[in-house]
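User: What would this chain look like folded?
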Amino acid sequence: MQKILNKKFNHYILVVLVFAFLFYNFNNFFVWLPNYQIFGHLIFNWPDSNANYFFSKLFSETYHFFQFEPLNLLTDNLLHTRSINVINSNLVPMTWLWPLLIFAFFTKIFGSLGILFFTPCLAAVSIFLFYRLVAHIFSSDILGFLSGILLAFFAPWFFFANEVMLPNVLFITFLLASLYIYLVRDKKYFYLASIFFLLAILMRPNEIIWLLVLLLLLIYYFHLYLNKQKIFIFLLIAFCLVSITLILNKLTYGSYLSFGYLNFQTSTLPTEFSQHNFSILKIWQFLIVPFSWHTKVFF
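Assistant: Here's the prediction, encoded as structure tokens.
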């Protein structure tokens, strides 16, 4: 009987996924693609999206994240758009590199227009992952199904699913995939779950505090399933991914420990952490509060 109910709700959630996927492509069908037909290139309404698309497409074609701009030789590296940084007259990403690397990989596969459907597809897949996670944790397919529906048409999720070149949905999908593989599927896929979890951290390192809290909770509840071999493999995967990150930083920014948010013209931290703006609440907002919600939400 339980298997029959599982199959029934699986079919129902698939119907929800199809409708959600269509809604998540609203901007694609009515904004980005029509404008592409008119102007011959894509223009997004968010500077981050424009920069992410530019560098993802660039990497898929050239396998590097920098673009030389000769006019910066005349302007002392001042010529760039928002969400793009400059170092030695080269335009470089003002963001973490892993989301761009993943976007570039799928741009190489699906093309510069096909990548527009990648984030909506992930957003739809996340609904299924969330549905199965809730159903498993609370042992209720009905609750899982209702939770999936609520997520599908949750306003912020709907918004970011339509912002196709932002990494928010990508980050959450990888995190949900990690939890789904480990908790729902089979713990023998621990290594695959580890890859997704570590990639989620590397995609948004500023979320590391609460992600590590989640990791510690999982270790506490499932420590009986852990052994030295699994811990070693987890650390080995982490070492490999961090090494790739450092190499990308070196190739892009000229230093292993540099990243896109630095002010390369003055060799200082971002303006948010300048002496004028520095505060404990600013650190709380950036490192501890999920997605850097403004501290006024809590105080």
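Strands lie at 67-68, 84-87, 90-93. If you want, I can go into more detail on any region.
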